[in-house]
Automatic annotation (TrEMBL):
This is Universal stress protein. The lineage of its organism: Bacteria, Bacillati, Actinomycetota, Actinomycetes, Kitasatosporales. Belongs to the universal stress protein A family. PANTHER family: ADENINE NUCLEOTIDE ALPHA HYDROLASES-LIKE SUPERFAMILY PROTEIN (PTHR46553:SF3). InterPro entries: Rossmann-like_a/b/a_fold, Universal_stress_UspA, UspA. SUPFAM superfamilies: Adenine nucleotide alpha hydrolases-like.
Length: 293
């Protein structure tokens, strides 16, 4: 799998889910802000009884034609919506055969960012739900963004970008992406480090944590002097605290691995708490997506 290039598209996956409407809008905004093309992708998983290449006159041919046309209509409708928001945007569409996860892994490897819609769940639903996007964390060389329906309209410019910091390589990549996002959207930045509660009992804990957080951000203030930055050190469960800080943010940015922090919060015992309960877009950045101050 080749790493994405500077002109690699923002890829947004669409299905028949209503959540994808918001994903298309957010992906179009990102592509426009970054000066990148937008690729709208729909994966069609064909039933075993009717193969994609069924020929005229064979059983299921009419159904297959309607099925293929329905997929094309999905991406065409999404393209019209994106063009309405950004008429100047370079937009292409694609309908690919295969299971959605497999298609996204195959085609998403050439993207600069993969965007998917997600549905916010209740506390009762979350333990039994599976996010189609969470399975891609760490599998792609580019960031993956999960976008729920916004509770409040989001402006194209301004607001706050929240980034989780834990000192890992993926955290460094997340900080780089978050600073870039804040600069492109004229947003403020909130950098948050979450420590386990038992750590707070150590003498000098907060001074040490604040120093580590400042070191993780060192150099970025010089590169982006226009960005207003707030630093927070909190103790508790990383997923719940980050979701709370980012409740009204433009997006929450985290790395896909860490020192028992974000990797555990995203993929361990509490993944659905962060994936399904963030109130805005969640962007998960892999460690190989590095940036330098």
């Amino acid at each position: 799998m080749n790493p994405p290039t500077d002109r690699a598209p923002v890829l947004v996956g669409v299905s028949r889910s209503q959540a994808d409407v918001w994903a298309v809008s957010w992906a179009a905004d990102e592509a426009a802000a970054r000066g990148l093309p937008l690729l709208i992708l729909h994966a069609q998983e064909w039933p075993s009884a009717i193969p994609p290449g069924v020929t005229p006159g064979r059983g299921g041919h009419l159904w297959a034609a309607h099925f293929r046309a329905a997929g094309q209509a999905l991406v065409d409708t999404a393209r019209a919506e994106a063009l309405h928001l950004h008429p100047e945007l370079d937009i292409s569409v694609a309908v690919a055969e295969g299971k959605p996860g497999e298609v996204l892994r195959r085609i998403g490897g050439e993207a600069s960012l993969v965007v998917l819609g997600t549905r916010r769940l209740s506390d009762a639903e979350a333990p039994f739900a599976r996010s189609r996007g969470a399975g891609l964390f760490g599998d792609l060389p580019c960031p993956v963004a999960l976008v729920p329906r916004p509770e409040e309209p989001q402006p194209e410019q301004g607001g706050t970008v929240v980034v989780g910091v834990d000192g890992s390589a993926a955290s460094e990549a997340a900080v780089a992406w978050a600073y870039e996002e804040a600069a492109l959207t004229a947003s403020a930045l909130v950098a948050v480090e979450v420590r386990r509660p038992h750590s707070a009992a150590r003498p000098g804990f907060y001074e040490e944590a604040r120093l580590e957080l400042a070191e993780a951000l060192a150099g970025w203030a010089e590169k982006y002097p226009e960005i207003e930055v707030e630093q927070q050190v909190l103790t508790g469960h990383p997923a719940y605290l980050l979701a709370g800080v980012a409740r009204e943010a433009r997006c929450l940015v985290v790395g896909s691995h860490g020192r028992g922090g974000w990797h555990e919060a995203l993929l361990g015992s509490t993944p659905r708490s962060l994936v399904h309960h963030t109130h805005g877009p969640l962007v998960v950045v892999p460690p190989q997506h590095q940036g330098r101050p």
